[in-house]
């Protein structure tokens, strides 16, 4: 057995249900597994195998070694039923799987040796071939992936439920400075990590009508008669825990047609009509987040949400029946977590299944539902709180609308008893929005139907209760709680930063990767110049790798010894990439004007995608690239300032970026960012944060120490006060000469080849309403950047601050988050999975 394999990890022995050869974890076994799959699975000989062939062969060999744990975990649940977490999410940004599974199995070195026997110099050449599943857009999907990995590592039984998007989030190209969206065909070469389970497919209905009838007991009931159907075909992805026997799964649903081909239509020459049903049904799982700027786009989004939620709930109910468990015990065996409002239709769908299919009375069905469902809110932005037009909803889900009306009627009766005669509060709390076009408020449905509602950072959870849902919080104070987000240290330090991981192993022991609080031991080294030098060398190693990547991808040469100042996240006005861009212009002007010859050399790196229909965000990308073109072509900037926009930012690229960052830009408008998780990844990897008191920044600053955090900007309460007092951005522009000069340079077309019209919408927004208070925060942001510059020129101080960020980041492990969910919301316990010979 490999020395890297934990001694207590039990493996199959001869005579077990699993082939002991395929379960072997030494280099010989991995090599044999690759050779076997090359020949039998891929039809290739080693002498003619491409890098992709070798990637597929290694992936299949590794998947073989997951199967023992995967099947044993399922058998353990069948043998000893206990509550399982059902994590419902429209996104699971799981990232590349091969390296993650090698790490969690503890066989990275063995795989390195095995691929070497095929003449491959480094395992990294194989890893680069892997396509990344584009199953998420950003933080929401990445959080879901971190949580699934932590659930498995903590041996908590769980299934993640979502959609198997054929085309994920688009691939991003930059042409003439603009974002161009290209289809993400991540499945084009086959994906070795999924296990299709067509025998466990589900039927899902849409449209049609409802009708009343009298059942055999003489009771009036309703039934839904859909006008169209789709089949949900599950595809399971094993989610392996770190060095444990437990292996949870991610179950993603692919949409198929009930009838793929209409022979009659074909025979009369209607060739499109012959496949129309197939095309319509399969469109449901074609693409992540269709554009909701059109009626058809909104209809498809709602169909997607109902599709995966219905399939998932049917799957849970069916699992109870298979195990001989009464459906009325649903809440004792399943805890259903709604990851934002996308799966909120689960409240109505579970009620429909219980009432219409299992014939429960309303009170019983409602008790089961509200005992099972919990809701995580991820946003305070009104536009992100989903509402569905009543006409659209009734045409697509008529039975669900009937049930929502009844839920709302019963709920509002409770409100009337609590607040007699208060019609205003009734309107505020109603699931049906009566203002303007009538709509179904999904956040209200989720809140009413859930036993817990949680925010994802202390400030965010407080704002939910004070600003977003104050009436709900007053009605049910016990329902609202906070669980601050976390990220998995296995991927975001163990894989992303092998040099730092190795140093941590030597200094605090290898258990830090599952017990991040052990990193506090590093505080003893804060004044050890020798150790600080070793710590800084791990950062320089990451910066050299990223510098090479930047040159290959963009042609820009950057100095690894310069300060790497990084802002990578979804492009959005509230995240304020334009604030960062304006301070870059200010730094550029200082150098050009000879104002400050003591500016530390800096490489400013941006990355992220803008939603295809979000014009202002796409203009911000063009703005950043316009600045980069000017700065990088100016000889005066050589050795002093470089600006880079990294195209197609994703998980794989993130693994390079987080380990190479010196300064983490977390500069959202206070009160707008729910939590953030990139801020946590940066801190774990020893980056210092420049940020506002927003989201989890507050908790990061509290834990790493205010002296190790570059704070600037208005607080949430100050932003509220500015808004109430008719905020005028021009006042701040006139009071800050550097800001007015930077804006003037943009206005005259200096960063747009003389085109003074190109960035006019951006300028008008900033100088007009400035909805995200960029102008109000600019001067203080520049002051904080000057402080960054000052500290950077003192390497001993910078390295000490960076070390303390890593040492004190343990709280932000997703393991801690999951433990809190298990204790305070889900009431679930770890499962002791034994690998035995009794499974067959």
Automatic annotation (TrEMBL):
Q: Which Pfam families match?
A: Phosphorylase (PF00343)
Q: Which SUPFAM superfamilies match?
A: UDP-Glycosyltransferase/glycogen phosphorylase (SSF53756)
* Required co-factors: pyridoxal 5'-phosphate
List the CDD domains: GT35_Glycogen_Phosphorylase
Known PROSITE patterns for this protein? Answer: PHOSPHORYLASE
Q: What biological processes does GO assign it? A: glycogen catabolic process
The UniProt catalytic activity note for this protein reads: [(1->4)-alpha-D-glucosyl](n) + phosphate = [(1->4)-alpha-D-glucosyl](n-1) + alpha-D-glucose 1-phosphate
* One MF annotation (Gene Ontology) recorded for this entry: pyridoxal phosphate binding
Keywords, ordered alphabetically: Carbohydrate metabolism, Glycogen metabolism, Glycosyltransferase, Pyridoxal phosphate, Transferase
Q: Which residues carry this modification: N6-(pyridoxal phosphate)lysine?
A: 681
Q: Name one GO cellular component term.
A: cytoplasm
Superkingdom of this entry's organism? Bacteria
Per the UniProt record, which EC number(s) apply here?
A: 2.4.1.1
State the function annotated in the UniProt record: Phosphorylase is an important allosteric enzyme in carbohydrate metabolism. Enzymes from different sources differ in their regulatory mechanisms and in their natural substrates. However, all known phosphorylases share catalytic and structural properties.
Family in the record: Belongs to the glycogen phosphorylase family.
> What is the name listed in the Swiss-Prot or TrEMBL entry for this protein?
Alpha-1,4 glucan phosphorylase
Gene name, per UniProt, is glgP
């Amino acid at each position: 057995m490999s020395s890297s394999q934990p001694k207590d990890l039990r493996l199959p022995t001869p005579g077990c249900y699993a082939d002991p050869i395929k379960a072997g974890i030494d280099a010989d076994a991995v090599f044999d597994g690759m050779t076997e799959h090359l020949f039998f699975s891929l039809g290739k000989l080693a002498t003619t195998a491409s890098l992709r062939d070798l990637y597929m062969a290694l992936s299949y060999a590794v998947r073989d070694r997951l199967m023992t744990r995967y099947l044993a975990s399922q058998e353990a649940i069948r043998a000893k039923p206990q509550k399982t977490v059902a994590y419902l999410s429209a996104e699971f940004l799981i990232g590349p799987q091969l390296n993650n599974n090698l790490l969690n199995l503890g066989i990275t070195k063995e795989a390195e040796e095995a691929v070497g026997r095929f003449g491959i110099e480094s395992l990294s050449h194989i890893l680069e071939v892997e396509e990344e599943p584009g199953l998420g857009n950003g933080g929401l999907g990445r959080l879901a992936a971190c949580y699934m990995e932590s659930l498995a590592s903590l041996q908590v039984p769980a299934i993640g439920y979502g959609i198997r998007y054929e085309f994920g989030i688009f691939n991003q190209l930059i042409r003439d400075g603009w974002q161009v969206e290209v289809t993400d065909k991540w499945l084009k070469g086959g994906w070795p990590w999924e296990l299709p389970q067509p025998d466990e497919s589900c039927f899902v209905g849409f449209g049609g009508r409802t009708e009343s009838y009298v059942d055999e007991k003489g009771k009036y009931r309703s039934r839904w008669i859909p006008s169209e159907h789709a089949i949900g075909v599950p595809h399971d992805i094993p989610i392996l825990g770190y060095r444990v026997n437990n292996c949870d799964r991610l179950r993603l649903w692919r949409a198929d047609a009930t009838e793929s081909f209409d022979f009659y239509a074909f025979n009369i020459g209607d060739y499109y009509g012959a496949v129309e049903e197939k095309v319509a049904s399969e469109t449901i799982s074609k693409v992540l987040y269709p554009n909701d700027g059109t009626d058809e786009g909104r209809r498809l989004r709602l169909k997607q949400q109902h599709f995966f939620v219905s399939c998932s709930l049917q799957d849970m109910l069916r699992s109870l029946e298979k195990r001989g468990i009464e459906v009325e015990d649903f809440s004792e065996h399943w805890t259903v977590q709604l990851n934002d409002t996308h799966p909120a239709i689960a409240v109505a769908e579970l009620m429909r299944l219980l009432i219409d299919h299992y014939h429960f009375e309303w009170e019983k069905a409602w008790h089961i539902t509200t005992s099972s469902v919990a809701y995580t809110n991820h946003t305070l932005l009104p536009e992100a709180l989903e509402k569905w037009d009543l006409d659209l909803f009734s045409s697509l889900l008529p039975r669900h609308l009937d049930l929502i009306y009844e839920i709302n009627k019963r709920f509002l009766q409770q409100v009337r008893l609590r607040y007699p005669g208060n019609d205003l509060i009734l309107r505020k709390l109603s699931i049906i929005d009566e203002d303007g076009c009538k709509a179904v408020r999904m956040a209200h449905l989720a809140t009413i139907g859930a036993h817990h509602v949680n925010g994802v950072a202390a400030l965010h959870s407080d704002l939910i209760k004070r600003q977003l849902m104050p009436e709900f919080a007053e009605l049910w104070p016990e329902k609202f709680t906070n669980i601050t987000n976390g990220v998995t240290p296995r991927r975001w330090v163990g894989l992303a930063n092998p040099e730092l991981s190795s140093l941590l192993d030597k200094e605090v022991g290898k258990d830090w990767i599952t017990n991040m609080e052990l990193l506090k031991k590093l505080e003893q080294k804060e004044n050890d110049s020798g150790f600080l030098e070793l710590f800084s060398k791990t950062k320089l190693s990451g910066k050299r790798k990223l510098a090479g990547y930047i040159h290959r991808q963009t042609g820009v040469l950057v100095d690894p010894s310069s300060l790497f100042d990084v802002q990578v996240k979804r492009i959005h006005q509230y995240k304020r990439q334009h604030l960062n861009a304006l301070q870059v212009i200010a730094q550029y002007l200082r150098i050009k004007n000879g104002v400050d010859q003591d500016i530390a050399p800096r490489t400013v790196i941006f990355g992220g995608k803008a939603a295809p229909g979000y014009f202002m965000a796409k203009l911000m990308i063009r703005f950043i690239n316009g600045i980069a073109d000017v700065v990088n072509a100016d000889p005066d900037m050589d050795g002093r300032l470089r600006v880079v926009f990294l195209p197609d930012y994703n998980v794989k690229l993130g693994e390079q970026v987080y380990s190479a960052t010196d300064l983490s830009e977390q500069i959202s408008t206070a009160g707008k960012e729910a939590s953030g998780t990139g801020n946590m990844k940066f801190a774990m990897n020893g980056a210092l944060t420049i940020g506002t008191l927003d989201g989890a920044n507050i908790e990061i600053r509290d834990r790493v120490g205010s002296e190790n955090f570059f704070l600037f900007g208005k607080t949430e309460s100050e932003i509220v006060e500015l808004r109430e007092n008719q905020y005028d951005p021009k006042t701040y522009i006139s009071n800050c000469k550097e800001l007015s000069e930077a804006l003037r340079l943009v206005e005259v077309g200096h960063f747009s080849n003389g085109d003074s019209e190109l960035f006019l919408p951006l300028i008008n927004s900033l100088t007009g309403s400035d909805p995200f208070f960029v102008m109000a925060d600019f001067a203080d942001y520049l002051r904080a950047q000057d402080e960054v510059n000052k500290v950077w020129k003192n390497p001993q101080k910078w390295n000490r601050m960076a070390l303390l960020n890593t040492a004190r980041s343990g709280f932000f492990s997703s393991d801690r988050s999951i433990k809190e969910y298990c204790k305070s919301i889900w009431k679930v316990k770890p499962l002791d999975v034994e690998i035995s010979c009794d499974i067959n």
